[in-house]
Amino acid sequence: MRRPRSAVLLSALAVSLTTALVPLTPAGAAGATLTVNVAQPFRPVTHVAAGGLYGLAENGRPADSTLLPLKLNSLTQPAPGVGQRPNGQPPGGDSLLVAPQATRVGAGEFIRMPDIYPNFPYGWVSWNDWLAKVDTMVRARLNATSVTNVIGWELWNEPDWTWNTSAAGSFNDGWTRTYRAVRALDSTTPIVGPSTSYYNRSWLSSFLSSAKATGTLPDVICWHELGDPTAIAAHIADYRALESSLGISPRRISINEYAATSEVDVPGRIASYVAKLERGGVESAHRAFWYEYGTLNGLVVNNSQPTGTWWLYKWYGDMAGRMVTTTPATQTGLDGFASYDATRKIVNVVFGNESGTNTVRVTGIGALGSSVRVTLQSTPASGRFTAVTAPTTVSTSTYTVSNGQISVSVPNMSATSAYNLVIQPVSGVPSYQQRYEAENAAVFRAQRLTSSSASEGGYVGRIDNNTSTHSTDSYVDFVVNVPTARAYTMTIGYANATGATATQGLAYNGGAWTTVSYPPTAAWGQFGATVGTTVNLRAGYNVIRLAKGSPNFAGGTGYAELDYIQLT
């Protein structure tokens, strides 16, 4: 957490776009060009940057209805028994108390341990005091047997300036003591750190060398990007080189605070952050906290109304299938991120951070046909207090595909606004998304893997854990959106090479459990087999869980890998 040093907030309004799209060849392009290569996917859609620091507060704030469309990846929330008073507010957002809501919307949680203190920077007392607090926090989490979504202990926050060296000794030694205290009680939950306030190679080198020597390396490496997205790619590349030079196996990366006060409510700027975080291969990234907790960092006003920036994350949440390569002309201006859902033949491109007339060049779309329908939307920088009921539809046009590509000219762009380009066959697509890839879902204590026989090339395996305490249960949560309330046939693509029938639990929207049976198949990672069942879903968003273990479920038998679910 960092607090604003001044009352800085952008509330610029986007320029209204009224000019229709005009198909252009690349030779006629004006301004900057963002190139999207649909034929070059690089990872499954997991909405890595859809998360926030202190995004949730007790009593269901914000409303589930504003969270489900965003497909939240993860959150960083305060420790159990939180004492932190962010910006003078009462303590709130206790990770264990908000866990039921986070679980309802499919989000994992990092627990930020130093938020047990009331002040920021943290008011160190003594080692006896801190270790007693660590013991209390970890035991509280372990005793909360209905909480299954904790994905990491964050041992400290911004130690490069908040650690009290004179009173507590060196941070590297403090990290080792804290790590060992957590591991003495909890041997499995990933440990996250060091969570520095910015990327600092020399600081990280000292920390990693010490952690390697003491056997206390974090499972998830973390630092913050709070003011300039243009350096993100270089920071990640430099970290990977540092890691290799020290003989450390690759860590998962979380940027669990991103965007400065002047950027966090500016969708055009956020588009640039998300693009760079996706391309950089981070596992998770969270919007920084600057003002009020329980608003998903300014995405929701009045508990249930979206702001302009919410719509950018809604477009992000609509993405499915695989992320595809985007190439900006430079790191400083026009940028964006894109996906391709091959099962529906839909390309989504979200972009911004540039003014004037610019071009989005989309290649590798021959599979969509000789003509495509292109819809362009925009959303303004409305600030964190102004609701935006819907994005603006700028235009819908038909483009001729030439050599597998089109170039879309976007006139009158505002650098503070974000834009959404949806490309689909002119013949249309299904009225709602029917297939949901397992690797796109929220995955807990299991692993995303790849296979040439899997739908969209990915699946989820090692769904192995069923424990009495449920803290390490394995399950997959699918956030689905259906048009009407009715019974749907749910087809599940799977593999089961145990030689015997395996089972998993099935529940949706927190309801009763049933069992799904998976007859044996020829081999692991080879797909084509399916089983079917019926689910009664409500209109709109639903969360469907397939589990080896979960609270209130007796547990599955054997093992099965998940490729996708399909609702018809």
From TrEMBL:
InterPro entries: CBM6, Galactose-bd-like_sf, GH. Residues 1-20 form the signal peptide. Residues 76-95 are annotated as: Disordered. PROSITE patterns: CBM6. Residues 434-568 form the CBM6 domain. Gene3D superfamilies: Galactose-binding domain-like, Glycosidases. Keywords: Signal. The keyword Aminoacyl-tRNA synthetase does not apply. This is CBM6 domain-containing protein. It comes from Microbispora maris.
